[in-house]
């Protein structure tokens, strides 16, 4: 296997690591950004901005800010 093919395989198999947030290379930055998006999606719920109540009723999230 050529050196270039070996490097491609290493990049293709690379997964997110917590220290990716501190690195400045394109791959680490992209993985950190994608991890943040996935984490936000799992935390926040659906894209329509609703939270499911324990009883199954959807509660819309306010699009307003908060008063300081």
Describe this structure in words.
- The chain has 68 residues and is mainly alpha-helical.
- The chain has one domain.
- Helix content is 43%, strand content 9%.
- It has 2 helices and 2 strands; from the N terminus they run H-H-E-E.
- A two-stranded antiparallel ribbon has the order 1-2.
- The protein is elongated.
- This is DUF4025 domain-containing protein.
TL;DR of this structure?
This is DUF4025 domain-containing protein. With 68 residues, this protein is mostly helical. The protein has helices spanning 3-12, 26-44, and strands at residues 50-52, 58-60.
How many strands?
Answer: 2
| Beta-strand residue fraction | 5-15%
User: What distance lies between the first and last C-alpha atoms, to the nearest angstrom?
Assistant: 61 Å
Q: Tally the helices: what do you get?
A: 2
Q: What strand line-up does the widest sheet have?
A: 1-2
Structural class: mainly alpha
Q: What is the chain-wise order of helices and strands?
A: HHEE
Summarize the main sheet.
2 strands, antiparallel
Averaged pLDDT, please? Answer: 80
Organism: Bacillus mesophilum
InterPro entries: DUF4025
Pfam family, one: DUF4025
Protein name: DUF4025 domain-containing protein
